[in-house]
Specification:
Blueprint (H helix, E strand, L loop, with lengths): L2 E7 L6 H14 L5 E5 L13 E7 L2 H9 L1 H11 L4 E7 L7 H9 L2
Antiparallel strand pairs: 1-3, 1-4, 2-3
């Protein structure tokens, strides 16, 4: 199953370090098969509060996502973003193409 990385960025910055980060991040993704699904769009909040924007990356697996995040290449540039933009980042595994929420609920109910 695919792995994903999501960053919830609370503010935006056009600081030179952030622009340098943007220029360099794609090269850190390529060796791990990662690519952007969303990159800082204007979000439409329908429930709750969501200050800021979102970045979503997709990888061939959760292992690949972890390997990218922990890679020396990414760790070398990460501070260029985190020094200037507050936010949170998570990694997680996706679901199979045949995922069925009703079956998941039934299993949780013990039926």
């Amino acid at each position: 199953m695919n792995g994903y990385a999501i960053a919830h960025l609370y503010d935006r910055s056009d600081h030179d370090d952030v622009l340098d980060y943007l220029e360099r991040i794609d090269a850190t993704l390529a060796p791990f098969g990662g690519h952007f699904l969303a990159h800082g769009p204007q979000v439409e909040v329908r429930e709750g509060e969501w200050p800021g924007t979102v970045v979503i990356l997709e990888f061939p697996s959760l292992t690949a996502a972890r390997s990218w995040y922990d890679s020396p290449a990414y760790q070398k540039i990460k501070h260029l973003r985190t020094d200037h933009i507050d936010g949170a980042a998570i990694l997680f595994e996706g679901v199979a193409a045949d995922h069925d929420s009703a079956k998941m609920a039934a299993a949780k109910r013990g039926s």
